[in-house]
Amino acid sequence: MTRAGMVCSGCGKQKPFTYEELTCECGSTFLVDYDLEYVRKTLTQQSIVNRATTMWRYRELLPVQSPQSIVSLGEGWTPLTPIDVSRIPLSIRKLWMKREELNPTGSFKSRGLSVAVSLLKERGIRRAAIASNGNAGTALAAYAGCAGIDSIVFVPEDCPPLIIRECQRYGAHTFRVKGLIQHAGQWVESYKHIFDWTSVSTLREPGRVEGKKTLGFELAEQLGWRLPTVIIYPTGGGSGIIGMWKAFKELRELGFIQGPMPRFVSVQEIGCAPLVRALGKQVDSAEAASPTGMRVPHPPDIVLLLRILKETEGTAVAVSRGEIEEARRMLGNRGISASPEGAATWAGLLRLNEEGWFGQDDQVVLFNTAHALPYETLAGTSNIPLLTNLHDLINTLRK
Amino acid sequence: MTRAGMVCSGCGKQKPFTYEELTCECGSTFLVDYDLEYVRKTLTQQSIVNRATTMWRYRELLPVQSPQSIVSLGEGWTPLTPIDVSRIPLSIRKLWMKREELNPTGSFKSRGLSVAVSLLKERGIRRAAIASNGNAGTALAAYAGCAGIDSIVFVPEDCPPLIIRECQRYGAHTFRVKGLIQHAGQWVESYKHIFDWTSVSTLREPGRVEGKKTLGFELAEQLGWRLPTVIIYPTGGGSGIIGMWKAFKELRELGFIQGPMPRFVSVQEIGCAPLVRALGKQVDSAEAASPTGMRVPHPPDIVLLLRILKETEGTAVAVSRGEIEEARRMLGNRGISASPEGAATWAGLLRLNEEGWFGQDDQVVLFNTAHALPYETLAGTSNIPLLTNLHDLINTLRK
Fold this sequence. Notes:
2 copies of one chain form a homodimer.
Chain A: E1 3-8, E2 14-15, E3 30-34, H1 36-42, H2 45-49, E4 80-82, E5 94-98, H3 109-123, E6 127-131, H4 135-147, E7 150-156, H5 161-169, E8 173-177, H6 181-190, H7 192-195, E9 198-199, H8 207-222, E10 230-234, H9 239-254, E11 263-269, H10 274-278, H11 302-311, E12 315-319, H12 321-332, H13 340-354, E13 363-367, E14 386-387, H14 390-398
Parallel strand pairs in A: 5-13, 6-7, 6-9, 7-8, 10-11, 10-13, 11-12
Antiparallel strand pairs in A: 1-2, 1-3, 4-5
């Protein structure tokens, strides 16, 4: 067994592996600890090469015990697409986009929920609930459906309707509730005992952070066991940041990589930027944040997130809705269908570039965490004109 | 150079490699021919293992000459997900779903257009046009955008609006035209010389069939250089069937695989089933076909398609809209967001199973050619109720 127990990310306290109760007395979060000596016996840079191209290629560093418990739809091992920086006036050396929209449920949330649902299966849990801004709900619905586990999804009232549709397609009971994600979270917590469901909300169980960790493993492997110098990540609950930071630490201890951690940059939207504020930066909050995965006013462990941003000499940046829209257009023209969160990483890149934050040797990774499509409304599509004559064709192409 | 020239799939006539003019005097289609002796020098089962996990890992068997011309967004190498047949009363041995919705543009069309646009780049073409039922238009838009090539997409008037949205997102001039795909095709052909665009419609250029070929390469490699016994494919223009058939022939000549071809099964929708009719089967056509990629009343080379179905002892089957909807529900419950075309392969499987067409040793591959999302409308989403009290929650979960 490679999972050795839990370690508190704050005070270092240890305890045996647990499926729940991740909050330590000190207020910080317990994370899964591995027996790396044992891991090393089967997981080597050489042994990985011939494994299946899903995130389960790193199975020794994932907390699921038996292969029979793994619930997989082919998640992970998404492309890391190089982007030509010469076409844009960027003073960095290299740029990549990690294509997380190419996961089975159309977003990066496939990773965490594949592990979380596998842990539910391992324990014999029959019903799970989640508070989500959308994509995590979709992912729970899909993996739970696949495992024959009942799923209940609570989303904020303004959650994009097509995301709700996807949750329903996978068979989840899906509820819109008044307020924001923390209010959805209250429904999950309050009625836990009445309905006997297990919460898979952010940092309520160990699977989601561990699943997100594979983002870090893949980055390192896809770059030939080197790390980028900067990671720009759209941050809501922040389990991706925590996961990648943990991944790099584990890879370092295993001797797979050397050198410093990348600088972690959290991107948030003006109107809901708790990390940016906590770093003491001014945020113009005239604008309300849009219903995206970044809109998490109270991240479950903001202390750990801030520690990671500071320790790695990263930062947090808030971008506007207008900047996100412009970034989506720019990415579209490069052949990438970007979610608002994914586009926000591009907008954050441009903003920090303008501020002169990068060095010219920086190698930067962005994350397109989901497709544009689930966020789409049909506004304006009813009046896409019908082409009837050559004249109209000439006029449009001349524009 | 591995591409040796063109060979007519009908009469066997040879000619040098051409970027256009694929129709032979005999009426059949010219396909790309490779110098397999030369290919063999660098492409081996061993050499492939360490290559990038995109469809370009088979680059010696793709017609693009220089690596600089390749326009890639990370297409191909999609998961082949095993489906548990014990949960369904199916009298076959094994079942897989090839997850083509996990391509960069959300559909299998990424493959063909990645090659087609690379060939445009190789030739220095600046403008391309396509007649499409939707997903091929999206793919042209994305790859052309990426290569800095102007793209013009013509779709039938009832094309799903979110697909048009995606085409526009990638920067394509997108036009709805009256009628079906052949009418869209008339726009492309009629105004070719006025606007100086190159057609990348089905079988107008060699790249799309060659790109689809990689579906066949991947199936073989992912199954450990064995082939399934049956392939069930949603068929419109049919370049996927032609592509996989060609792939298996090439792999056989290279000695990578042995044994018989899989039986190819074309799935179409009642209301537009030219292949099913051509095989002399009765089709109840009371229903009009829905706007999907299968709705191609006049496939460009139906003779070749029928030959492949007959030679491999396959068949063609027409399913109803109701069967497709039911199949989408069943796939959703297995964690797969399926397009109507992808669901149709599942519906076709159930239909043929009922007819007793399979042997109990059959190993069957289905194709989810695209996500459900692009086909989605928002009908009904405005009245997703807001959860306000425990009573409603109890009532819904009891149902």
